[in-house]
Amino acid sequence: MNPKKDLLGIEGLSSKDILYYLDTAEKFIEVMERPIPIIPALRGKTILTLFFEPSTRTQISFSIAAKRLSADVVNFSATSSSVKKGETILDTAKNIEAMKVDGVVVRHFAPGAPKILADNLNAFVINAGDGTHEHPTQALLDMMTMRQYFGNFKNLNVLIVGDILHSRVARSNIFGLRTLGANVAICAPPTLIPLDIEKLNVEVFYNLDQIIGDFDVVMALRIQLERQESGLFPSVREYRNLYGLTQDRIKKMKPDSIIMHPGPTNRGVEIDPEVADSPKSVILKQVKNGVAVRMAILFIHAGGKIE
Q1: Does residue 279 have a cis bond before it (omega within 30 degrees)?
Q2: pLDDT at 215 over 60
Q3: 226 vs 285, which has greater pLDDT?
Q4: pLDDT band, residue 284 (cuts 50/70/90)
Q5: Could you give the 3-state DSSP secondary structure of residue 138?
Q6: What contacts 178, CB < 8 A, 6 or more positions away?
Q7: Which of 81, 122, 142, 171 lies most in the core, judged by the most C-beta atoms within 10 Å?
Q8: Strand residue runs (E) in 24-121
Q9: How far is it, in rounded angstroms, from Cα 292 to Cα 171?
């Protein structure tokens, strides 16, 4: 693979591109299991995490990934920056690039913000989530986890449950899984499904109980509770009763199927605590794979070398 400078989304990547990221990430699993899980692959490189939305898991995951590659890491929070004084994202990034930053990992509430940076910076740019557009690194770690359990994606049946309308995780997973040959379906209340969903080539269902037993992977998306206040579904209790992964509901799943969640979870809403901690759940595996995938992405785009 001869990677592009930036990773802005899964849409447009070939199956070869996606598998190269996954294959490289698998090599870093071995590094993570060493007594001292650090290699000097990016020594002398500086990575900036530029987060304009709150994040714990993704920002920490990228920071750990960079440090395990021996890169220097600068964590930037918009809540304590000149952005509050009116500075634009491009002003901020250009000022930081003047300090010789090699790569920028950006999360922003506006779709397309990472592309604006990528078009104007010499540093490589990794999209860590832009509005409701894409979250490519989450999709890559999700696909890595699925491959570890099922070997390949041909005829793999994946169901994504929840707020598809606002989910960048769902979009990136749909793009990637469809490219790799998986069958993807979604299940949600009609108010949480995009109007142009047919463009994504997925099956659409509304009754989770009728179809949950047909899938190898069931991924629950986090319900943002402010959606309930805007009237997109009647109540949190009703959402859980119809679409939550409850103990009774998962008894209908295939014996060898798995449950995924991009996190953070609303326990008792889209997934019950007993289900999140059950043998079917691979949520902690996703977290571990997230570090390996982000190590691979930084390594590839920063031109890392194994000494």
Answers
A1: no
A2: yes
A3: 285
A4: very high
A5: helix
A6: 184, 200, 201, 202
A7: 142
A8: 46-51, 72-77, 103-108
A9: 22
* Nearest residue to 221 (alpha-carbon basis) of 266, 280, 258: 266
Nearest to 129 by CA among 196, 194, 53, 64: 53
Which CATH class name applies to 136-282? alpha beta
| The CATH number of domain 15-134+287-301, selected from 3.40.50.720, 1.10.10.10, 1.10.443.10, 3.40.50.1370 | 3.40.50.1370
Q: 215: closest CA among 269, 165, 268, 161? A: 161
Do the beta carbons of residue 226 and residue 171 sit within 8 Å? no
The DSSP letter of residue 17 is H
Determine the Cα–Cα distance for residues 68 and 35; give it in Å rounded to an integer: 12
Q: Which runs of E-coded beta strand occur in 67-140?
A: 72-77, 103-108, 124-130
What are the sequence ranges of the domains in the chain? 15-134+287-301, 136-282
What length is written for the chain? 307
Cβ atoms of 105 and 50 closer than 8 Å: yes
Distance CA 90, CA 96 (A): 10
